[in-house]
Amino acid sequence: MNPIKTSNVYELYLKQNIQLVKTLVIRLDIVAKAMNRSVMEMTGQANINSTDRRTWKYYQNICGTYHFTDSMMSVRSLDTGEIINFDKATLVAHPVTQQAYSFESYYYNELLTKYPNNELLIKGIISPLDIEFVVAQKDATILSYGKHLIEEHETELLADLQNWLYVFYERWVNEGYTYGNDLYVANIVAQLHAAALQKVINLRLRRCKTHQAHSFHVLEYLKSHGISDYAARLMSRKQQLTLYRNIKRYQRTSGQYATFLELVDVLLTEQAMPAYSHTASHDPLSIHYTNPNERDAISPDIRFQRTPINTPAKSKPIGSISLSEEAILMNASAPNNAQYHEKNLDTIEQQMAMSLDSDMNIKVIQATLDMSKTTLIRAPEVVVLNEWIFACASGAYRRPISYTPPGASVPLELSQQQAVALWIYFLYKGMEPERQAGLENYPHMDTIPAIPCSRIFRQTAPTAEILSKLAPNQYVTYVKPQEYLDMVVKLPSDILDYSSLRSYCDSVFSAQMKMRRKYSYEDDYMARAYAQLIVEEALTYNPVVPLIKTAQTPNGYTGQNYLEFLDRIGFKTFTYTANDFYQMAYDLFQLATGLNLEDITDPAAIQKAMLEVLKKLSSYSIQFVRASGDFGENPDSRPITRIVLMKASAQGAFSATLPRSIGSVKTTRDDVVVKVTSPSLDDIGFSSASASARFEHRHKRIGFGLARNPTELQSLRCGMRTGIGMSNTDAYSSLTDAQKNELADHRLNFIRNFG
Q: Are residues 539 and 397 in the same domain?
C-alpha cells in the first residue's frame, strides 16, 4: 500500500502543532513523586522533605534550579569562548550563548545528547519559572508554552486545551499504579502528550469556519477556490475571513452588480484603494456647427468620465480623460493592445462619435494608488540590509543562527559574519545565468569580498563647529548643524537578538527620514543644498566593509577562498538551480534578521494582487486597469517647489521676489501669496497643471526658496539637488561659475577633513 502523500504546507503546519505540544510544560505531581523515589534509592529517605515540594528535584529542575543530586553542566561560551557553567545566573551574563541554546536549536540538541538525563533541567534553565507559582498550581496545569506557536486570534485554544488536560488527568491517571509498575508514569506521560497533539489538531479543526480559524485552514480553503497563496497572504485578516465565509456565494452570483460592489468594498475599500468606473461620453461643447454636410463639423470629442464607486474614490474625485489617454490605460490589459490602438484609434473615435447614445458604459474599472503617502525614498528593508551587514562586519551583531539548506539533514551553525558571506554567495550563484548570458557584467567571484554598504551613520561624527564650516556664513543660521547631529543614531556595541537589531534599524530609518524632511523644508535652495551635504556626506557615508577579525572570528573571512569557506562550514552545493540559490538567500536573510520580506506592504504589489482576485471573482467582461493616481504623486519626497527668494528682516517681516515674466508675489508679516500667470506652467515646474492656468499658493511663514530666473527655476524644480553631490547634472549646469567654484571649494574642504 502506497503511503499517503502530503503537501509541504501541511507538513509545516503539522510540525508547528508538534512543536507546540513539545513546548508545553505541564505540572504532573506523579512525575515529581516518581523522581523522588529515584532520589531515595540513591541517597536514602532522610533527604526527601515530603511536605515541602520546593525541595523536590522535579519542581527545582522545572524552574531551572539544580537539585543537590544534579551535576553541574558546562558549555563553551559563544560570547567569550571560555568554558562556563550552564545555569540561569551565568547565562544572564552571556546573552549570545543563552540565545543559541533556545529550544530544539543545534546547541540545545547537542547539550541534550551530552546530558540525556537532564532534559527537564535544561528546559528549566532556558525558560525558568517561579517555583512558588509552580507549586501552587493544580495537577495538569499548563505552566508555560511556545507563545509564538499560537496565533493571536486563537483566543480560546489554550483554555480549551487546558480543560481537556484536566479531564484527561482526572479520567486516566491513577496514582496507585505508580507503586506497582515502574513504567506506568512514563507510559501515561507519553500517552498524554500523544493525545495532546491530536487534541490540538482537532481543536483547530473545530474552529474552521469561525473567526478563530488557524491561518493554515483559511489560506488552504481560499487556495482551493482559486485564490493564489501570494494574494491571500497580502490580505488583512478581515479580508481573509470575509472571503473565507462568502467566497462560495461570490462564485454563485458572479456577474451581479451587488456582488461586484461588495467585492470592491472587500478587496479595494478595505485597502483604502480608490476605484472608478469609466463611461464614454460625447462632449457637446466640442461640436462646432458650421456646415451640416461636413461630418467633422457635428462629430463631438469623446471624453471618458471616471465615476467613483467606493468611499476612497469619493473623497478623491478625478477628472475625465481623452480617448488616447484611455487607450494608454488599456494597453496593459491584454497582449497587442498597444499595436491595435496605434492602428485603429481614429476608426474607434469615429465610430464612438457617431454613436446614437451620448453615454456608453464600457465596463472598465480603474483602480488608482496615491503614492504620495506610501512611497519612501529608502525602503525600511534596505535599511535593515545595510545595517545588518555593517553590524555583522563590525562585530556588533553576534546572534548565532542555525540554517538547514534544502535537501540537507544537518543544519549549518553559523555566526552572523558567516551568514553574510554565505548570503553573498547565494546571491552570486542566483545571478550566474545572467552573468553567463552577458546580461550582468561582473567578474567571477572566487573569494569572499568586502561588501559595500550605503547611508551608514558615521560612528565618529564631526562636531557642529566643523559642520558649520561646510556652508558659508549666510546659510549657517538656516541650516543649524547641531539639530542634525542630535538625530544621529549610534551603532550599539552588542546586538544580541532580532528585536534589538530591528529596534536599531527602525531608529536609523526614522532618523534619516526626519533629516530628509527637515532639509527638504529649507526655504533657500542653497541652504537646503548645504543641509543635504551635511546629512549625506558628513553624517553618513558609504563604506566598503570587510568581514574583519573579531573575538568570534579571529582569522576574519574577507579574502578567503569560497570553496574552502563552504567546506569549513559544511555547506554542500548538491544540484541547486539559480532559483534555489535565490530562495536560499531569501530564507537566510529572514533567518538572520528576522525580517519577513513577504510582510512588507508594497502598495503596488497589494493593488495588483487585489485586482487579480477581483477579476477572478467578477464577470469576465469587466476590464480592470491600474494607475498610480493623480493625487500629488511625490516619489522623491520633496514637498516644496522653490519659486521665490524669501528673506526675513530683523523685525520679522517677509519680502519675496519673482520674475515678472512668471507672476507676482505679495507678502505680509505672516503670509505669502504667490500668484503665477504663465503661457505654460511647465516652464516653472508645475507639469501637472494645464496651460494658461492661474496658480495661487499660500504658505505660512515657511517660504519657497530661491530662483532668480525662469531657466534656473525650471532646473531647480522640486527643491534642487545641487552639484555638491554631482547627482543632478541639470541643476548643477544651471549654476554660475562662481557658485560652482564655491561649492567645489567646500566639497574639497570636506573631503580633506573626512576622506
A: yes
What are the Cα distances from residue 31, in Å, to 59, 186, 359, 531, 749? 10, 8, 81, 69, 75
Q: What is the pLDDT of residues 551-579, one digit of tens each?
A: 555 556 778 888 888 988 889 877 788 88
Q: What is the pLDDT of residue 292?
A: 59
Q: How many CA atoms are closer than 13 Å to the CA of 701, on its beta-carbon side? A: 5
Q: Are strands 672-677 and 401-403 parallel, antiparallel or unpaired?
A: unpaired
Number of domains within the chain: 4
Look at the alpha carbons of 160, 162, 165, 167 in this order and tell me if their dihedral is positive or negative: negative
User: What does the pLDDT read at residue 200?
Assistant: 97
Same-domain check for residues 447 and 334: no
User: For helices 29-43 and 184-206, what crossing angle results, to 10°?
Assistant: 160
Pairing mode of beta strands 359-368, 623-627: parallel
- Coil, helix or strand at residue 638: coil
- Check: CB of residue 703 under 8 Å from CB of residue 672: yes
Residue 639 lies in a domain: no
d(CA 366, CA 350): 24
Higher pLDDT pick, 255 / 190: 190
- pLDDT above 90 as % of the chain: 32
What end-to-end distance do the CA atoms of the chain give, in Å? 72
Query: H/E/C letters for each residue in 662-714?
Result: CEEEEECCCCEEEEEECCCHHHHCCCCCCCCCEEEEECCCCCCCCCCCHHHHH
Q: Tell whether 569 and 650 lie within a shared domain.
A: no
> How far from chain centre, in Å, is Cα 437?
32
Are residues 657 and 525 both part of a single domain? no
457 with 554, same domain: the answer is: yes
Of 368, 396, 414, the position where a domain reaches its end is 368
Mean pLDDT in residue range 39-64:
88
Task: Name the phi and psi angles at 362, rounded to 5.
Answer: -105, 5
Confidence of residue 247 (pLDDT cuts 50, 70, 90): very high
Confidence of residue 5 (pLDDT cuts 50, 70, 90): very low
Asked if residue 138 and residue 35 are part of one domain, the reply reads yes
The strand pairing partners of 25, in sequence order, are 144
Query: Which residues form the domain of 690?
Result: 645-754
Phi and psi torsions of 280, nearest 5°: -80, 130
Helix, strand, coil shares, percent, the chain, to 5: 50, 10, 40
Mark whether 498 and 565 lie in a shared domain.
Answer: yes
pLDDT digits (tens, 9 = 90+) for 650-690: 333 334 443 333 344 444 433 444 443 433 333 333 332 32
